[in-house]
Amino acid sequence: MTDIILHHYAGSPFAEKVRVALGIKQAAWKSVDIPNVMPKPNLMPLTGGYRKTPVLQAGADIYCDTQLIMMEIEKRVPAPPLLSMGREGEARGLAMWIDRNIFWSAVGVVMGEIGDKLPEAFKKDRSEFSGRSFDADKLRAAVPMARDQAYAQLSLAEAMLADGRPYLLGAAPSLADCALYNPVWFIKERLGPTASPLDRLPRIGIWSERMKAFGGGKRQNITATEALEIAKAARPAPASVDANDPSGLVAGQKVSVVPDDTGKVPVSGELVGLSANRISVARNDLRVGDVVVHFPRAGFVIQTL
Ligand SMILES: N[C@@H](CCC(=O)N[C@@H](CS)C(=O)NCC(=O)O)C(=O)O
Fold first, then answer.
1. pTM of whole model > 0.85?
2. Which numbered atom of ligand 1 lies nearest the CA of 67?
3. pLDDT tens-digit readout, 102-140
4. Does ligand 1 lie within 6 Å of residue 12's CB atom?
């Protein structure tokens, strides 16, 4: 089985969503530390422009966005399942809500509190990343609103735990728990375990300790150069375009793929795979040769070139 390589940095909450999944599965994985701001010169040959954190590599296949990364980990390390039979839709739907709603309110709470202490290079990078100026004063003024939203949204998760179940969907941890751990971990790491609004959400507090206890699996650090060499020595796995896809796109078309929210850097290449879950684009780079970059379908825009 091809090794899985996570490109990430310690402080990334979306990377923590993946690391806790690797912990639950006690999976063996390789770790490449990447910068938390652009430029990312050793990541770009793999992704072709996609700049967000984390990115998963398996040989010459590159998986962007945790929506898809988690599905790929589930396929490669099936036990214990994070998408148990019959609950996939629920778990993935909850994860989508958490990633797209709770996460941003948690960012508002954290950045409002610590924004003025962050380096200028970080603020400049995140302004470009989000398309909105990183203004520490405005962020601080908006903390009450962000905290209210975090409180209201997290209360929905708190209510799911109200019957005493240990995890959001019942007796075992699922993708939904890993997704929720991302914003909860972020607030706890940056502001402490009793930061508001977590101080009003005791069940989430206990649940997050349960999640923390899973650790991060069996990690082995490698260099970015080693990861590039692994990609160069490998061949991408075969992919296929669904002939019944509503877009009418066909294999071989030149396309660009871009996230619809932040870090909107398009990745161009030849369409080799397409389904409701995934867009796969083949590209070539001098440092890594032929690679296929995979994106989730939800939240990504495809344009023909
Ligand atoms: N939808 C993406 C969101 C990833 C994301 O926004 N990650 C943050 C870090 S937690 C990021 O990329 N920040 C800018 C950077 O690392 O360059 C996913 O699920 O992977």
1. yes
2. 19
3. 999 999 999 999 999 999 999 999 999 999 999 999 999
4. yes
165 CA distance to ligand 1 centroid (A)?
A: 30
Which CATH number applies to 5-80+219-304? 3.40.30.110
Q: What is the pLDDT of residues 180-223, one digit of tens each?
A: 999 999 999 999 999 999 999 999 999 999 999 999 999 999 99
Atom of ligand 1 nearest to the CA of 186: 10
What DSSP string describes the chain? -PPPEEEE-TT-HHHHHHHHHHHHTT-EEEEEE--SSS--TTTHHHHTT---S-EEEETTEEEESHHHHHHHHHHHS-SS-SS-TT-HHHHHHHHHHIIIIIHHHHHHHHHHHHGGGS-HHHHHHHHHHHTS---HHHHHHTHHHHHHHHHHHHHHHHHHTTT--SBTTBSS--HHHHHHHHHHHHHHHHH-TT-TTGGG-HHHHHHHHHHHTTTT-EEEE--HHHHHHHHHHS-PPP--B-TT-TT---TT-EEEEEESSSS---EEEEEEEE-SSEEEEEEEETTTEEEEEEEESTTEEEEE-
pLDDT tens-digit series, residues 51-84? 999 999 999 999 999 999 999 999 999 999 999 9
**Among 38, 52, 68, 107, which is best to mutate for testing ligand 1, by the most ligand atoms less than 8 A from CB?**
52
Class of domain 88-212 as given by CATH: mainly alpha
Q: Which of 8, 9, 14, 264 to mutate to test the pocket of ligand 1 (most atoms within 8 A of CB)?
A: 14
**CB of 99 sitting under 6 A from ligand 1:** yes
